[in-house]
Design goal:
The structure holds three protein chains of three kinds. Chain A has two helices and four strands, in the order βαβββα. By secondary structure, chain A is of the alpha+beta class. In chain A, strands 2-1-3-4 form a four-stranded mixed sheet, with helices on one face. The longest helix of chain A is centred in the N-terminal third of the chain and has 15 residues. The termini of chain A are far apart. Helices cover 95% and strands 0% of the residues of chain B. Chain B is rod-shaped. The termini of chain B are far apart. In chain C, the strands form three sheets. Chain C has an eight-stranded mixed sheet, with helices on both faces. A six-stranded antiparallel beta barrel of chain C has the order 1-2-5-4-3-6. Chain C folds into three domains: 68 residues, Elongation Factor Tu (Ef-tu), domain 3 (Beta Barrel), CATH 2.40.30; 273 residues, 3-Layer(aba) Sandwich (Rossmann fold), CATH 3.40.50.300; 124 residues, ATP synthase alpha/beta chain, C-terminal domain (Lysin), CATH 1.20.150.20. Classes of the chains: A alpha+beta, B mainly alpha, C alpha/beta. Strand 4 of chain A pairs antiparallel with strand 1 of chain C, so a sheet runs across the interface.
Chain lengths: 71, 163, 501
């Protein structure tokens, strides 16, 4: 199982470890993690695993808000 | 004087005979032709008179019919002129109505355009304002997010997804 | 919304913001591995449903129509080569939807609800394009007439509310004209009209919209259009979207008329799409379910029972034939689905008989149940008379001597044919139709020259309208008592007497 995690550039390592722990709990200890850094997410992270995307980034939440209030 | 009765009677008879013969001759030679002449003349006069009467009647008829025609054509001319006048009036009314209708249509069209423009403006303003608000929020959050916030987000996420 | 000033706009946005809850965003995604000819092959999205709307990375929408074991094929709903290989695709979780509601009336929209008339569309409610048809128990028999205003149709091939009546004919025979005239005639009858243009030229659709606007019919009409330049998927979706819009009104208890112009192009678009999705071709290269395509579309037209509101949806599909061949694949399919057809012929059209309805081959399976009382009383034997006339007309052509009765029948037949000629965009009211047929039945037109028939009828209608002004509104509602009928007959005879002098 490969999990690609996109995190903000200045994320501290221990928080990153937290994310990995959480995913390891679900997918097992042998999951492979790919780390990507991005300046655009502001906060939270985006995880892509097994065709599903979990997007907790603040940026995306703001986008959702924008879409919701203008529809 | 011895009147011979016999001779007087013969004279009388001869005289009477003379008169008779004269009468016949006169009748044949004079009366008949004259009568004929008079009859012919009468007939001719009658003929002429009836001819004249006929011509008079015809003339009267012609005069009458001419009067009628005149009257008719006068009526026709009146009707024609009335028709023309009413047609012209109807045309004028029609033109005025058309112009009014056109003006109304132009007004309606203008109103509809204004309404559409307004709606477009409102919709695009809405989008722009939302975009602006989100941009501002982004700016602020990208500066202010710290590790505590990140931790919280991650915790919430895993709780929600029930891992 | 249109009254909002800037303060109003921000208040509105604030309100919407309060209503919104922030959730974790979770979605499935796939990747485009191959794209071409309007079809994209996508890897991923294992839980995608059939017909689900997909959104590509660049905002284009697609519809998943081909679900295979290891990939899925999606038709791209927008034209243009905007989708590239490698793009991510998100499943929206929704099937194709269309906005519905009263705000749709008067608008021109495309198959996925985007407005095409320059104004934004604020829709509150949405409805899936694919819906199942009303069940048997939810329907009631057709009993109300839908007046087209065309004398030939209302008298001999009447359409009822809830019926499906096909208009079939070659190109340029007046099919769209009949449909548009029917829409124009619904002005005062509380019927909502939807005009669905599939695969038409944009100029044709624009002309139709102009006609509707000029006649002030747009206030109760909505136009759903997928022109010939739209992708086959949009053309495929358009009738379904239009039907969903109509169904919303039907379930709200209203009477709706929907016109599909035309279903031949719809079948062709479906064939294009199916061949591109590599589905096996059948007869004439159409996919095997082309019958189901039209049957499920037309079955959604119904006359609902009183429990469900008593609304109705009348469908008038249009099919274009080639060379008058109504026995080819798609025409026979749709003829077997609909409740009757109006058959338009080229020869009739060219010989001046417009609308060019072939009354012998046209039929309405609902028939007299869909006629109002007044028309029913005067139209009893028209079809028989016309068919006898057609039989005998051959003799007349050769100038052969015919007996007195046949000559009379020929004369009456030619008068009736002349009577049925009607100008475009000139619908007759119920009263006018009843009057014309009543006059015909009373042999009023027998000594009128065919070329003078129309002015005669106009004057007669005017005269009777003035004389019997009280009866006119009653007949407009459809009822005609015997007393009214004799009053009308009397004034018709009076007019005939006056005009003979």
């Amino acid at each position: 199982m490969t999990v690609t995690i996109t995190v903000p550039k200045d994320l501290s390592d221990d928080i990153y470890e937290k994310i990995l722990d959480g995913f390891k709990k679900k997918y097992g200890d042998d999951t492979v993690f790919i780390k990507e850094k991005s300046t655009k997410i502001i906060g939270g992270f985006i995880a892509e695993v097994d065709g599903t995307v979990y997007d907790t980034s603040i940026r995306s939440k703001l986008n959702e808000i924008k879409k919701a209030i203008t529809s | 004087m011895n009147i011979n009765l016999g001779e007087t009677a013969v004279d009388l008879i001869i005289n009477i005979l003379n008169i008779l013969i004269l009468f016949v001759i006169v009748k044949l030679l004079v009366y008949k032709p004259v009568k004929k002449f008079l009859d012919d003349r009468k007939a001719r006069i009658n003929e002429e008179t009836s001819k004249a009467q006929k011509i008079l009647d015809e003339a009267t008829d012609t005069l009458k019919s001419k009067d009628l025609l005149l009257e008719e054509s006068r009526k026709n001319a009146e009707a024609e002129s009335e028709k023309i006048i009413s047609e012209a009036k109807a045309n004028a009314d029609f033109i005025v109505a058309e112009a009014k209708k056109n003006a109304k249509t132009a007004e309606e069209k203008a109103n509809a355009e204004i309404k559409a423009k307004k709606e477009n403006f409102v919709a695009s303003s809405k989008d722009e304002i939302a975009e602006l608000a989100v941009n501002i929020a982004e700016r602020i959050l990208s500066r202010e997010t710290n590790s505590k916030d990140n931790e919280k987000i991650i915790e919430d996420f895993f709780d929600e997804v029930n891992i | 919304m249109s009254e909002y000033m800037p303060e109003g706009i921000s208040a509105y946005l604030k309100k919407r913001l309060d209503e919104h809850t922030v959730k974790t965003i979770k979605y499935k995604y796939g990747t485009v591995t191959k794209t071409g000819d309007g079809v994209a092959r996508i890897l991923g999205l294992p839980e995608c449903k059939y017909g689900e709307l997909l959104r590509f990375e660049n905002g284009t929408y697609g519809m998943a129509l081909d679900l295979q074991e290891d990939h899925l094929g999606a038709v791209i709903l927008d034209t243009g080569d905007t989708v590239r290989e490698g793009m991510t695709v998100i499943g929206t979780g929704k099937v194709a939807e269309i906005p519905v509601g009263d705000e749709i009336l008067g608008r021109v929209i495309d198959s996925i609800g985007r407005p095409l008339d320059g104004r934004p569309l604020m829709a509150q409610k949405f409805r899936a394009c694919e819906q199942s048809a009303p069940k048997i128990i939810e329907r009631r028999p057709v009993d109300t007439p839908l007046r087209t205003g065309i004398l030939a149709i209302d008298s001999m091939v009447p359409i009822g509310m809830g019926q499906r009546e096909l208009i079939i004919g070659d190109r340029q025979t007046g099919k769209t004209s009949i449909a548009i005239d029917t829409i124009l005639n619904q002005k005062n009858s509380n019927v909502i009209c939807i005009y669905c243009a599939v695969g038409q030229k944009a100029s044709t659709v624009s002309r139709v919209i102009e006609t509707l606007k000029k006649a002030k019919a747009m206030s109760y009409t909505c136009v759903v259009t997928a022109t010939a330049s739209n992708s086959p998927a949009m053309q495929y979706l358009a009738p379904f979207a239009a039907t969903s819009i109509a169904e919303w009104f039907m379930y709200a208890g209203k009477n709706v008329l929907i016109i599909y112009d035309d279903l031949s192009k719809h079948a062709v678009a479906y064939r294009t799409m199916s061949l591109l999705l590599q589905r096996p071709p059948g007869r004439e290269a159409f996919p095997g379910d082309v019958f189901y395509l039209h049957s499920r579309l037309l079955e959604r037209s119904a006359c609902l029972s009183k429990d469900l509101g008593g609304g109705s949806l009348t469908a008038i599909p249009i099919i274009e034939t080639m060379g008058g061949n109504i026995s080819s694949y798609i025409p026979t399919n749709v003829i077997s689905i609909t409740d009757g057809q109006i058959y338009l012929e080229n020869e009739l059209f060219n010989s001046g008989i417009r609308p060019a309805i072939n009354t012998g081959l046209s039929v309405s399976r609902v028939g007299r149940a869909a006629q109002c009382d007044s028309i029913k009383k005067v139209s009893g034997t028209l079809r028989i008379q016309l068919s006898k006339f057609r039989e005998m007309a051959v003799f007349a052509r050769f100038g052969s001597d015919v007996d007195v009765q046949t000559a009379k029948m020929l004369k009456k037949g030619s008068i009736l044919t002349e009577l049925f000629k009607q100008q475009k965009s000139n619908p007759y009211s119920n009263f006018e139709e009843t009057l014309l047929l009543l006059a015909y039945n009373n042999n009023v037109f027998d000594d009128v020259e065919p070329s003078k028939l129309k002015p005669f009828c106009k004057k007669m209608t005017q005269y009777v309208k003035n004389v019997c002004a009280g009866i006119v509104p009653i007949i407009e509602t459809g009822f005609m008592s015997d007393g009214d009928m004799s009053a009308l007959e009397k004034s018709i005879m009076e007019f005939k007497g006056i005009s003979d002098e």
